[in-house]
Amino acid sequence: MPALPRPIPVLIASRNATPKGNVLLVHGRNGAPDQPQIAEIAEAYLAAGWRVIAPELPNSSALLESGPASELTLTGHLAAAAEAWHWVLSEWPSETCALAGHSIGAFVIAHLAAGTPTTHHVLAVSPAVSGLALLDARRAMGPPAVAELEREAPLFRAEMETQDAAPALARTNARLGVVTGAEDGIVPISYARTYFASAGNGRFFGALPGEHHCPAGPACADMLKAALAALGA
Question: Is 40 part of a structural domain of the chain?
Fold first, then answer.
């Protein structure tokens, strides 16, 4: 794998001297570890006794030092997250490790889990199963939504029709859970179900009424807690 152009900042948090395990938490397009939907996932893991490792991945408009958001690609997001994941596995080689991700972060962790048979579990929130699914949802919003994507992230748009996490999910033996917003327009619930159904060991699927692409709040916290319980976390 080629070296990335800049180091990846990583935020690490734990409330236990001896955590239950380590989870790499991967944000989505224009995401960041401190965004509400990511912080909600982190809080669920911290409350369950896990160590959370949240990288600040390149080309996010929410991270000013991460590079131009216009240069984001699914393959680049995966490469950067893979570097962070390999660091986690080498830093804590004898400890339990899991993966969590939001939106295209969920696309990424499907591939990471497929390549790591020791992954304890996978938790996907508002999961993007493929670039084509994301593009279809944009098309359903109308031409202006597609034009906005092409203007803001042309490289991302260029690879959407060829990127698919379903084959990786089919090769993943880790227990998998999905939490999604029932009103999500970016990842409609049908595509979240496709993500779940593509996995070889799906254990939990939960849809939050009234929530959109970035679920957060008490109902989301309860759903995440239930998901982690179902995943043995």
Answer: yes
